[in-house]
């Protein structure tokens, strides 16, 4: 009986220890770690010295990102055009749909890995993430509101006074702190846990299949000059030979007024292509197959066509069907399911 009693006490002790250990693990999981640079990524471009990501600042930014009062009629949020399940793009629309269902002129770009971006918007013109939200808030086809009105709406709500106090040490709701909070949320939208990333970091015994490996080698030969690893964009602006659309969008030229920039658009990342269709600045291609068709057969000799696409008489990139299949296999390794399901980034 005494031995059985001792065993019973030991069992209880083990159970209590396991519970406490579980609580410690759960506490660590729920600890806000702030911005963490993935091991296989370069140093970020964003100046965190001016706006360090804190738990309170991030949570405020998340509230603002999903706040409809940023729009004129209080119906449109940042998350309306940047939907997490679509890697923060507006899936199903060729161009963005804003207030009163007004149509924009360009496809909603994904909010992803912005800490490494040196320019924003398909056509440039904004070079500081902290200024980026001003454009969608004030644009007629998007939120059609003024910053002054937005701030007045927020000032009328006690919950925002306390949130700004927690994040920035003052209840005063200023333009600078409003924009910094939004930046803190967007900076945390890091996509870095695709199969590709795990292979590069040698995590979880991840490895490419034969088709993925061969596709990777083809990618480095045919695509990597513009879509540079590990972000899969060189963050530059290039003319990829698209036929001008009906509104004759001139791209970067609209920001610089330099003839050399006509028809140049920002090089998008190839991460999360499974979730970000349609493709190109105006969403003209519904599938990746259509994108391949463009580069193989349909590159136009438009003004300022990128030299990398103008090497051959036929222009474009030479890819046969077998190579396309292998490239697709590799591109699928760039999809990050953890990113689109990250509850930390979802509306609370």
TrEMBL record:
GO molecular function, one term: heme binding
Details of cofactor binding: Binds 2 heme groups.
One GO term describing the cellular component: periplasmic space
Residues annotated for heme c 2 binding in this entry: 223, 226-227
Post-translational modification: Binds 2 heme groups per subunit.
Residues that, per the record, bind heme c 1: 78, 81-82
Entry's localization field: Periplasm
Coiled-coil stretches: none
Keywords: Heme, Iron, Metal-binding, Oxidoreductase, Periplasm, Peroxidase, Signal
UniProt key word Methyltransferase: no
Domain Cytochrome c: 210-335
Cofactor: heme
Membrane spanning stretches: none
Main localization (coarse): periplasm
Name the UniProt record assigns to this protein: Cytochrome c peroxidase
Source species of the chain: Pedobacter xixiisoli
